[in-house]
Design a protein that fits this description.
Layout: E1 4-7, E2 29-33, E3 44-48, H1 50-59, E4 64-67, H2 75-78, H3 80-83, H4 108-115, E5 120-124, H5 129-137, E6 143-147, H6 156-169
Amino acid sequence: MKPLLLIDIDGPLNPYAALMRRRIPDGYALHLMRPTGWDYGTPLPVLLNPEHGQALLALAGRYELVWATTWKDEANEWIGPRLGLPPLPYVDWPSMLGGAPDGTYWKTQYIVEYAAGRPFAWVDDEIAEQDREWIAGQGAAETLLMWIDPRIGLLPADFEKLAEWADGRRGGGP
């Protein structure tokens, strides 16, 4: 069974913090969106790089791709098509932005529950050392937790690291 690749949108795929510097990073396009909660007023600005869709599709042979984002199923409507991705399963958070154990990010406990013992890689801009320690203490399967700078988003080297980890855990690499 393939490991899971749990993908956050805001930060890794949408380097939203780049907009604070009023610049669109090379390779990105600005999309104005109206997901649930953005029905009125200014549309939500989202930066997306179509190369990320190609890179994720290339990883689909190594991973089961899963949205791990507050966009939940709306990722398949607003984000996936713009990246050329098919509909993906998603983590349906039982509670968003609530309390979390031992100072961890609110998503962390649900990520472990969703993985249900399967190996997983997780890309998110909110991962911290407390999350790594808590996940290790839960006896989780093999994991790769990648903090992604929300000013930059995923880089080619990040996709290479994800491929190497998947290959290595299956005995195909170091």
